[in-house]
Every structure is written in structure tokens, then in C-alpha cells.
Specification:
The protein is mainly alpha-helical. The protein has 24 helices and eight strands. Residues 1-30, 112-122, 257-262, 332-339 and 353-359 have low confidence and may be disordered.
Length: 752
């Protein structure tokens, strides 16, 4: 069907024509009626690229699930490279480091005590220490009459002398100790720490399926050990309790747990007791407080706006006077008339305060002059913004008022939350499989007769028993795949955020151009916006999220490199500060791009244009209305920040008052650290408040750009503005005339 449009006398006529076409085509009147042309799909090439990217992500996930073994990340391996609780080690799920002397050497707890070669001069670490798999961690015997032993697998080359008659079942039944069955030569070898049996000098406990050393050691058993013929004091006289902390912390660090486990357990116990407080004060309270704060903003926006302007100027004046007093620019003679009216002590105090400072007079004067300049500029800027404050008040009222007419906006954050959870679960599971799909290989280390592992080998020529440790390795292709997968998570999560921005911006855009009336819309506004933005502008979200994810990935790689250099001790001050500076620059650049992206998404929802076009149009529109943008930005940001902080503090206070009750101070429900729960509640509350305020913030930005675009299209009159904005700007008469002109155009349109 063809539409012959008459020459438009104004941009309003084109809007009326588009609305007429929408009505004839059967589309809901009002939806996208402000567009000059029908909405089209944008950034299709990037959408195809993003789809191909996700096909690759799915392929990598499938490869990881097919070839990976997550148990490798939880279970250790023995000195033969066989994983615990698998294969021959089925039922033996605990990794145990056999030779505590080798562990002490690996963590440099002994220095050069047992060898002239220092551990720092060889490529050797705890991963190369000899380990086997056991069903349970061994228990030491601390008596002067004997010692506990843990012996190697009975079928090993240096195992039980009667193997294979002596089986693993016999070995397990004997608590891994067949020392009494050894020959004299094998016992001598064991006393020399070369196996097949090794003394148990410390208690151990299973931590992440690895036996962790703890306690001060079996001093009596150690004395007995040293008293035996051919026994070697491998510690060189160092007491067991001096070595224990180092080997314990080393094994804990090897397992990736440098935090105190006992403290974590106490915190877990606290949450098990105080979970009701967390739910009530950390979830329910911030939601209620957020809604209340939005109601306050809706009805007292003008009061807050002018109070903020007054407070900022008053603070600048007070600070200026303070520095003037300290610099001596306002002397005692100036305030004598005031001090004479107060008591003697108060007069002396005021006079002393007004006396010039004895030092840094010149610097204080410079600061005072700078503050005077800042105060004057701030005052002039405030005068210039007074008219724009009305715009800010109206925009904020419209944005907050939208929640009353579109209550589904309050629950919309659940959608991205669920999407993030699904993405996170899928990515984490497949990443674990992909990460564990590496190949178990023997590591390279220095094979020196005077240092481990050869130092503790019974037969240094036997490569089956005397070798370096095993570890999972990743080739270059797999390393690249892992990096690609990390970037994939960053891009996908940013894409979800971008789509949410588009949906919320579309809701507020339709709300604005429908004059705050959704009666013409049959479906839910949020649902309609989700369908529209997903169908037309998925590619636009992919473009904007791509730029942000690149910067996030670069920052992540730089942080990893800096951490590695720190571990290797190669992080010089110049390199460290240079890296921090680059990190800050990248962070700042990321914030700038995120700021531009938000405005681009808003313009996409308003005009239906591509990402780059929308970004350019948004920046141009904001430059033309810079004062209004500044007023809305300053006032809106201050109000929203105050809201977040107030809600977090309020929720934390509620949690503290609840935990201060005697039920949580004494008895079975006592918590060891109420402060920790209060802090967690405050963080939860701040996050929930941030979700609410982020929607309001995006709504404010959207309504502001809609107002600027509406005014630009209609000769400075926001013809489609909701009543709250029209009332705040006192534009009722101008808008009425614009509506009359619009009705006239419609009549002319119908006559043709």
C-alpha cells in the first residue's frame, strides 16, 4: 500500500504521518509513532559475528565435556602420575606426601642443612615431592618405644619384599605399614629416608583431598627414630615444631588455600545461625527501603534539588571563610564586634581561632584565593543552571513516576539475574571441564645427586622411582582456548547487560512518547520492549558489549601478569607503578566507553539506529543541551548515591539491632562475629539498592534524551512529554498549541 504524504510544514507533521501509517497497517497506535521511519534491524554483520562466536564457545564447551576430567582439579596424583581414587587407586582418594624431609626441603624449611646445594639453586618444588594415594590420612604414634610408618605401594619396585603375595588389601589393612616385614637393607634405607617406608612425624588431616600437616610433631617418636642404627637426622638438629608451620603453610598454599580455615568455618557457622537476619535485613529491608526512597524522590524531588544546590554553595562559602581565617585575610579586628557580644571564654576562643596560622601563610593564602575563585564560579554556574533545575526535577519525577504505572519494572532485574546465573553456571561447568582437559605429564626439574629428588632415591638410576613430579599441562592451542573462553564470558555477560539497557531504555522511551499513558498498549510494556529490542537490536548490544569486554580482558591479563611477576619476585617499583598507571587508564577508558554505550543504547531505543550512529547522535544532542545534561547529571547522581548509601546503612543498622538481641549474644544461637554479618548485610543491601537505582538512573538518562530529542523535533517544545514534565517546566500552553497543530494535521490527513 502506498502513502502519498503532503509537504510537511514541520517535523510534527512527519510524526503524525508515521502514526497514521501505523494505524492503517494495524500496529498499536503510539508504539514507535515518534520514529521518522519504521524500525529496522541494526548491526547485522556484528550480530552474525557474535552468533559465530557463540558457536565456537559451544564447540569448545563440548570439547571440554568430552575430554575433560573435573576430578583432576579436586583429586591429587601419586608419584606415578596416576590420579587418586581412579584406576589402581580406586578407593584411595587422599594424596599423602610420603617423605616429610623432602617436603621440608621443597619449601626451603631447612635451607642447606641436608645438602650443600640450596633449594633456591635447583628447579624443584612441592609438586615434585613423592606422594601416594591412601584411603585415609595416617595417624602418628608419639611414644619413646616406637614410631608409625607409611610404606610405598606393595607392588612397586621398592615395595613389599613378598609382593605380589602381599596385596594392596593387606597393605590397607595394616594401615599402610609393613616396615616389620622389610629386610635389614630395606630398613636401613628407610632410616636414611629413601624408602620404601617413611616415618610419620606429624598429624595430618584431609584438606581438599590432600593430607595436610598440623601440630608440633611427634618429639618422642623422633627421638626414638634418631636413636636407631643408621638413622639419619635429616633435619640437622632443627626441632620439629620449628619446621611444622612452614611445611603446613606450604601444603596449604599448594592447595590454593592461604586463608585461615578455622576463621572461615566460624563465619559459616555464623551464617547458619543468623541466616534469618541476612534474609530479613539483607534482602527484604533494602527492597522496602528502596521503594520508600523512590516514593520520597517522586514527591520531594524539587526540595532535594534546591537543597543540594544550596548545600554545595554553602559548603564552598564555609570552606572559603575557614581558609581566609587561617590565612589571616580575615583578622581579629574584623570580628571584634561579634566577639564582644559573647562571653569572655568564647570571645578568646574565637579570637584565637581567627589569628593567622604561624606557618604556611603563603600556601594558605593561595588556597584561599583559589577557593574564592571556585566559589564565585560555582555560584555563577548555579545561577546559569537555575532554569535547568526545573528540567532536572521534571525528568526525575517522570522517571520515578514510571514505576507507579509500570510496576513490572521493579521485577525486571530478576530477568538479567536469572540470565547471569544461567550463563555463569554453564560457563563455570564447561570451563572446569575445559580446564581439566589438559594432559598429565612429568615435569622437568634438576636431577642433582646432592638435592631432591635424587637425594631421597634408593636407586638413582631407576627412572621409574626416581624422577620429577607430575602436573597437568596445557599446550598452546588449549591455552588459547582457555583465554578465548574467558573473553567469551566477559563478552556474554556484557551483552546481557547491554540488552537490559536497551529494554529498560525502550520502556522509558515508549512511556515518554506516549505521554505517560500505556492504555494503547495491549501487552506488558516490559514484555513488548524485550521482544522489540531482541528482534531489532541484538547486534547493537553485541557491538557495545564487545568494546567493554575487550578492555576488561586486557585489564584481567595485565593483572594476571603483574601477579605472576610478584610471585617470581620480579616486580620492580617502576614496573609495578607503571602497571598500576596503565590499569587505571584502562579502567577510566572502560568507564568512558560504558558511559557512551548507555547513551548509544538510549538513542537506539529512541531512533532505531545502529550503534555508531546512535552514539554520535547522543553525543551531539547532549552537547546542544549541555547545561540541562549537567543539571540532571549532578542532581540525579547525588540523589541516587545518597539513596544507595542510606539504604545500605539502614539495612546494616537493622541487622545490628537484631543481632544485639540476647538470643544472638548468648546461648545456642550466639554468633562469633556480628560485625561480619552486618558488613555482609550492608553489601547485600547496597547491591540491591544499586539495582533499583541503576534502573532509575537509566530512566533519568532516557527521559532526558527523549526530552532533548522531542524539543529538537518540535521547535523547542516537548510535544510528547508526560504531564509531570510539562507541569515542572510550565509549558502547558505551548504544548496545548502543539497538540492543536497536531490535530489539524490529522484532520488534513484524514481529508485526503
Amino acid at each position: 500500500r502506498h502513502f502519498h504524504l503532503p509537504p510537511a510544514t514541520s517535523r510534527l507533521a512527519r510524526v503524525v504521518a508515521v502514526e497514521h501509517r501505523a494505524r492503517v497497517m494495524g500496529a498499536p497506535v503510539g508504539l514507535d509513532s515518534h520514529l521518522k521511519s519504521p524500525r529496522r534491524c541494526t548491526d547485522l554483520l556484528f550480530l552474525i559475528f557474535y552468533a559465530a562466536f557463540w558457536v565456537t564457545m559451544l564447540a569448545l564447551g563440548g570439547y571440554g565435556i568430552k575430554n575433560g576430567n573435573p576430578a583432576a582439579l579436586v583429586l591429587g596424583t601419586d608419584y606415578q602420575g596416576v590420579m587418586c581414587d581412579e584406576g589402581n587407586n580406586t578407593g584411595l582418594g587422599k594424596r599423602y606426601f610420603l617423605n616429610v624431609a623432602e617436603v621440608a626441603y621443597a619449601v626451603n624449611a631447612l635451607g642447606s642443612t641436608i645438602s650443600s646445594t640450596s633449594v633456591t639453586s635447583v628447579d624443584y618444588n612441592l609438586r615434585d615431592a613423592k606422594s601416594i594415594c591412601l584411603a585415609d590420612c595416617p595417624t602418628m604414634t608419639n611414644t619413646a618405644l616406637g614410631i608409625s610408618w607409611v610404606c610405598n605401594y606393595p607392588e612397586s619396585v621398592e615395595g613389599h619384599p613378598n609382593s605380589p603375595t602381599y596385596t594392596r588389601q593387606d597393605w590397607i589393612a595394616a594401615n599402610y605399614d609393613y616396615f616389620a616385614d622389610l629386610t635389614a637393607a630395606e630398613k636401613t634405607s628407610s632410616y636414611e629416608w629413601k624408602g620404601p617406608c617413611y616415618p610419620v612425624l606429624y598429624e595430618t588431616i584431609s584438606t581438599f583431598n590432600t593430607c595436610q600437616y598440623f601440630g608440633t610433631g611427634a618429639d618422642d617418636a623422633w627421638t626414638y627414630f634418631k636413636s636407631q642404627t643408621n638413622a639419619v637426622d635429616v633435619f640437622g638438629g632443627t626441632a620439629l615444631d620449628e619446621i611444622a608451620p612452614q611445611i603446613s603453610s606450604a601444603v596449604e598454599g599448594f592447595l590454593g588455600g592461604d586463608s585461615p580455615l578455622a576463621q572461615i568455618e566460624r563465619y559459616i557457622d555464623d551464617f547458619q545461625v543468623g541466616w534469618k537476619v541476612l534474609v530479613l535485613a539483607g534482602v527484604v529491608a533494602p527492597i522496602v527501603l528502596s521503594v520508600l526512597y523512590l516514593l520520597i524522590l517522586r514527591y520531594f524531588t524539587g526540595f532535594f534539588a534546591y537543597l543540594i544546590l544550596f548545600s554545595v554553595n554553602a559548603l564552598a562559602i564555609v570552606v572559603t571563610i575557614y581558609f581566609a581565617l587561617k590565612a589571616g585575610l580575615i583578622g581579629s579586628d574584623v570580628i571584634t564586634s561579634y566577639t564582644s557580644k559573647v562571653s569572655g571564654s568564647a570571645s578568646t576562643a574565637i579570637t584565637n581561632f581567627a589569628d593567622p596560622a604561624e606557618s604556611n601563610i603563603a600556601a594558605l593564602k593561595i588556597i584561599t584565593y583559589c577557593m574564592i575563585a571556585v566559589t564565585v564560579i560555582l555560584f555563577l554556574f548555579t545561577l546559569m543552571m537555575l532554569r535547568r533545575v526545573k528540567v532536572a526535577v521534571g525528568v526525575i519525577k517522570v522517571s520515578v513516576g514510571a514505576f507507579g504505572k509500570i510496576p513490572s519494572l521493579i521485577f525486571f532485574p530478576l530477568v538479567p539475574t536469572v540470565m547471569m546465573i544461567l550463563l555463569g553456571v554453564y560457563w563455570l561447568v564447561t570451563m572446569i571441564f575445559l580446564f581439566s582437559s589438559g594432559e598429565m605429564k612429568m615435569q622437568s626439574c634438576t636431577m642433582d645427586a646432592g638435592a631432591p629428588p635424587m637425594l631421597f632415591c634408593k636407586d638413582t638410576t631407576n627412572s621409574d622411582t626416581c624422577h620429577c613430579g607430575y602436573a597437568t599441562t596445557w599446550d598452546r592451542n588449549l591455552q588459547g582456548a582457555l583465554l578465548f573462553y574467558v573473553f567469551g564470558f566477559l563478552w556474554s555477560s556484557q551483552w546481557i547487560i547491554a540488552m537490559c539497557y536497551l529494554v529498560v531504555a525502550c520502556v522509558f522511551t515508549q512511556y515518554y512518547f506516549l505521554g505517560g499513558n500505556y492504555n494503547a498498549v495491549k501487552n506488558s510494556p516490559v514484555l513488548s520492549a524485550m521482544k522489540k529490542m531482541t528482534f531489532y537490536h541484538t547486534g547493537t548490544a553485541a557491538v557495545g558489549s564487545f568494546f567493554v569486554s575487550i578492555l576488561q580482558f586486557v585489564r584481567l591479563v595485565m593483572a594476571f601478569i603483574l601477579r605472576r611477576l610478584k610471585k617470581l619476585g620480579k616486580d620492580s617499583k617502576i614496573m609495578k607503578y607503571g602497571a598500576y598507571y596503565i590499569q587505571y587508564c584502562l579502567w577510566y577508558l572502560q568507564k568512558i566507553i560504558e558511559w557512551i554505550n548507555r547513551r548509544a543504547y538510549i538513542m537506539t531505543s529512541i531512533e532505531g539506529t545502529s550503534f555508531c550512529t546512535s552514539a554520535w547522535n547522543a553525543l551531539a544532542l547532549m552537547v546542544k543541551n549541555v547545561l540541562a545534561v549537567a543539571a540532571v547529571g549532578i542532581i540525579g547522581d547525588i540523589m541516587l548515591v545518597l539513596g544507595k548509601v542510606s539504604i545500605a546503612l539502614g539495612s546494616g543498622t537493622i541487622a545490628f539491632l537484631i543481632l544485639d538481641n540476647e538470643n544472638f549474644v548468648y546461648g545456642d544461637e550466639k554468633v562469633s562475629s556480628p560485625l561480619f554479618i552486618v558488613i555482609v548485610v550492608g553489601l547485600f543491601a547496597f547491591c540491591i539498592a544499586s539495582v533499583f537505582m541503576s534502573i532509575v538512573e537509566l530512566g533519568i538518562d532516557t527521559v532526558l534524551l527523549c526530552y532533548c530529542k522531542d524539543s529538537e523535533d518540535h521547535g523547542g517544545v516537548p510535544a510528547n512529554a508526560p504531564p509531570a514534565l510539562i507541569k515542572a517546566l510550565n509549558l502547558a500552553k505551548k504544548v496545548k498549541r502543539a497538540k492543536i497543530e497536531e490535530a489539524k494535521q490529522r484532520a488534513d490527513r484524514s481529508a485526503q
